[in-house]
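Extended Data, panel c. Modelled sequence:
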Amino acid sequence: MRFSLVSLCLVPLVFSACTSQRDTTERAPAAASYVDPQYYDHQILFSEALTFRSKALQFAQEKKMGERSDVSFSRSEGEWVRKMGADYLITRQKLLDYTLPVAANFADPNKVKLTPYLGTKTEKKERVRQKDVWEAYQVLNIDPKDPQGEKEIFKTQMALASALILMDNFLVAIQPYNNIDSIRYVLNYDVEQKKALQKVADSYTSRERREQIRSAIEFVDGVMAWRRAQGVSTSPEEANLYGMIQSSIWYVAVKNNKEGSTFEDAVANLWNRLTSRGKRGARVVSYGVSMGFGNMVGLVESRKGYLYNMSLNEKNKLIAEMKPLDILMEKTPFRLTDKMIPGHYGHVAIWLGTEAQLKDLRVWDQLPRNVQDKIRSGHRIVEALRPGVEINSLDHFLNIDDFLVIRDTRSNITDEYRRKAILQAVAQIGKEYDFNFDVHTHTRIVCSEIAYVVFDDVKWPLENTLMRYTISPDNVAQLAVGNQRLFDPVIMYYGGRRVYKDLPRSLELLLKADDAHYAEFSKLQGI
C-alpha cells in the first residue's frame, strides 16, 4: 500500500482493512448453517455500493462540498458524476430487490415474531381498525431451529444489510450533492431518470421505511441474542451479514436512541457527532464514519480464500517450519478492501511459536496462564482485528489466497532479544484496535503496527499521513527484499499455491503491484 496514492477519504480504509480481513469466530460446525444461494451475488452488489460511496466521498472532498455553496462542475465532471449516479441506481435497484419482499413482513400492521421450537408459519389475522372497519394482517412466526426458519432469518439479514447500506449511502454520499441546487440540477439534467434523485431522497425520509428498518433490527438482534443464550453458533456468512448491519450508521443510531426521542433525532444526533456538529469535511471520512465504513468494507467477500480448506498435513508442515517471531502476511483479493487499496499485502501478524519452542527459548514460564492455555490449544498468532488484538489459530488465519512468512535472520539477534520481543507481542493481546492509525501511540494497535512494536530496534519505513506516522503491510514487507534486507522471506503462497523459487526476488515483484511485474513473477514461478 502506497499512501501517497491514496486519497484522504480512502486513507482510513487502508488500515481498517486489517481490522476486517476475516470473521473473528473460530471455524466450528455451525448449528445455524444455512447460506442463501444468492449470498455471493449480494456481496458483489455490496462491493459496488461501497465503491460508489468511496468515489462519491472522494469527489465531494476534492470539490469542497459542505464548505462552500458555489460548487461548479466542468462538462466532463458533470458527465462523470451523472454516469456514476446512473450506475449506482442500477445497483440500488438490485439491492432493493432483496429488501422490498422482506420489508413487507415488517410493514405495519404485519408482525414478525421469534418462536423457538414452535415451527415457522404464517398466520392470517384481522383486527378492528376503527368502528365497523376490520383490517387484515399477517404474523410471520419464525422458528430459528427449523430449516425454513433459518432461511427466513438469512433472507432477513440480507434484506436488512441492503436497506442499511442504501440509507447510509444517501446520508453520507448522496445528500452532500443533493443539498446544492446547482449540483442537483446537473444530476437531473438530460438524464433518463430525471426524478431518480428525488425518489432516493423520498425513500430516505419515508417514516414507513424507517419503522420497517427499526423493526427488522430489533428482530435480528433478538435472533442473535437468542443464539448466544442457547450457545447456538452462526455460519461465517451470516456473521458477516450481521457485522455489516452493526457497522451501519443507522444501526448505531437505533441502538443509541434514547427513550422519548424520535428515530429521526437519533440519526441526526449521531451524524452531528460524527461530523463535528454537522460540518462536513475531512472528519466525515475520518475516524467516526470510516470506522464503520472500513469494518463493513472488510466484511464484503465474494468467496472463501484458496487456503481456507488447506489439508491438515499441510498445516502441520507449516507449523513445523515456522519459528517464534516469524511475521505473517496475507492477501485476500476476494475482499472489497483488496480492490479499493493499492499495494499487495493487506494484513500483518506475529507467530508466537509452539509450547516446545517457547520452552527452548526459556520464555514459556513468563507467559500468563491464559496465554499458555491458548498456545496449547493451537492459538499461536497475535493479530489486530476489528475487536482488538487477539491470539488466534493458523486455521483461523487461513481464509486467504496469498500467504507470506518473513523471518528476522540478523546474526546479532540473541535469545534474550527474542524473549523480550515475544513478551512484547503477548503484551499487545487485549488492546483495542487503533482507528487513528498512529504508530507513535501504543495504547491501541493497528495490524501492521504489531511488527513495529515487537521489533522495536528496526527502522521501519513509515508514512506521514494525515499528520500522523503510519505503517502499512507493504512497508513491513519492504524490509524483506533487496541486498540489504533485514528479514528473509521463508514461506510464500500465491493464489493458493506454494511457491519456492527465488523468494526475495518473487516478493520484490509482488510488491511492485502492477501487471508487468506480476507477469514476471508468474514466469519465474512457472505459473
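The longest helix spans residues 147-178. This feature is highlighted in the accompanying rendering.
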